[in-house]
Structure formats: C-alpha cells, structure tokens
Design goal:
By secondary structure, the protein is mostly helical. The protein has 7 helices and 2 strands. The chain has helices spanning about 20-30, 35-40, 45-55, 60, 70-90, 100-125, 125-140; strands at about 10-15, 20. A hairpin with a 5-residue loop joins strand 1 (about 10-15) and strand 2.
Amino acid sequence: MGRLPMPALLPVQAEGGEAMTFEELKDQMWRELPVLRRNMVGKRRIDELVEIAIDQCPIQFVEHVSRGGDESEVILSAWRQAVKRGHCLLHGEHNVQFGPLFWVLVGPLLQILLKKLLDWWFESARNRVLMVGWQRSMTSDGRD
C-alpha cells in the first residue's frame, strides 16, 4: 500500500510570525518525542503516524473536550485505536520492518504523540482550524 496523500499546505501564523506548514508540525512532533525511541522507529514512520493521526483525529469529539479533563483520556484511547487501524490499512496487520515488535516500540511513542497533538490543538484556535483543514484536505484527496 502507498503513503497517505499530503494535505494542502495551509499556512497558519506560528509564534514569531512565520507560517506553519504540515511539514513543520511533523518536525515539531519529531523534536518533542524521546530521542532514543524516535530514532529506533525513524523519522519517516513518525511522520507517517502524524499524518494518520491528523487523518483519524475524532475532531467532532475533541472540540468538545476540556483541556486536561477526564474525557480526554477516553478520546486519546479511541484516537490511538483509530491510528493503529489506519496504520494496519496501509501496511497490513504486522509491520514488515519490525514485525510484532513494531507496536511494542511505537505504542508508547504514539501515546506521547497524540497527547502532544491534543495539546497543540488546544494552544490556539488557528491550530484547530489548521487541523480541520488538513483533515478535510486528506479526505478530499479521494480517501472518503
């Protein structure tokens, strides 16, 4: 199976005034993950997980969650399962590169990644608009 289609690079004003792109978000998520584990998995796989996470984000529920609320753990759990399903659709049930150990390595990173994306969502209304736009762009690329 192939890679996810890249969403349109909708700019948003980031801190400092520059426009943030989807690539910059992936780079930011990469930098915020634990170094040893992220290096074991690799940047390409982490970028792919960010793409799947944006695509699978349950926005209709996330937008009603309060930051740090109890319901955020339920949302994160459902989101994590959706990302795993999305990854399996792309690569089959077991990842060829790591075999069954893939989720042992990636599971904790995925949890951290999704929490960081949720924090990013809450940082500003612009981030929320951007995530919705990226997700819609992915869907409109023929992946309904």
